[in-house]
Amino acid sequence: MMSSSDPEASATPFQPLAAHFAKAQRQYQQWLDKVTPFVLYRWIGTAVLLALFMLRIVVAQGWYIVCYAHAIYLLNLFLAFLQPRFDPSLQDDLLADEIEEGGESTSPLPSSRDDEFRPFVRRLPEWQFWLSATRATVASIFASFFEMFDVPVYWPILVVYFFVLFLLTMRRQIQHMIKYKYVPFDIGRKARYGGQR
């Protein structure tokens, strides 16, 4: 009779499969850790994948709905990348509510815009943006090899609708950036600490 402490008695037929899956997960995570510092090369790789996907769509003359869904997903990622983690309009509303109640502000954030330097913190960090965009592009390439995803649509309407959606959402995002005076990019700006030199 086998004892319950015997490791072979508690082994299931799926245990070797689970071990291989765990090993593959570790190797994938190690690869991600290795490519993390190479921002430019990561984005170049994603751009190449995106170009291959677009080439596949143009050559195959199909899978327009997959391409449209992919473009909408990338637009949502880009908007989340441009937005601050904490919406300034919500913070202003919370601050106003606290002041109306007669209490002092309990917010950990400065109560006026000039109190303290606050760096721009994105709602979607660059790393997550890249990883999600790359995974979505690989999934879209994979989906373009299956006929069931090739839904017949009139593609010029999808293109026009996407550009209208892009322009409207970017206009709203730019108005938000102007209203709350933040710039999500730091290209060309040099951080200065202390007095001017």
UniProtKB/TrEMBL annotation:
- Keywords (A to Z) from UniProt: Membrane, Transmembrane, Transmembrane helix
Gene Ontology BP term (one): protein retention in ER lumen
Localization terms from the record: Membrane
The record, for Pfam families, names:
Rer1
Task: Provide the transmembrane region boundaries.
Answer: 39-57, 63-82, 152-170
InterPro entries listed in its UniProt record:
Rer1
Q: Name one GO cellular component term.
A: Golgi membrane
- What membrane topology is annotated for this entry? Multi-pass membrane protein
Coiled-coil portions: none
Q: What is its main location?
A: membrane
Its biological purpose: Involved in the retrieval of endoplasmic reticulum membrane proteins from the early Golgi compartment.
Q: Report the sequence similarity comment from the record.
A: Belongs to the RER1 family.
Q: What is this protein called?
A: Protein RER1
Species source reads: Ganoderma sinense ZZ0214-1
